[in-house]
Amino acid sequence: MPNQPLQATAKSGPRLSGNSLAGMRELRAILSGVGLVGAVLALPEVAVAEVMDKEPTLAVIWTWALVGGALGFVGWHFRWWLGAGLGLLAASYFVALYSEMTDPYVGPAIMEEAERGYVRWSYCAAAVFVILHVAGVWHSLRGRGHVAS
Question: Is 4 left (phi over 0), alpha (psi -120 to 50) or beta?
Answer without folding.
Answer: beta
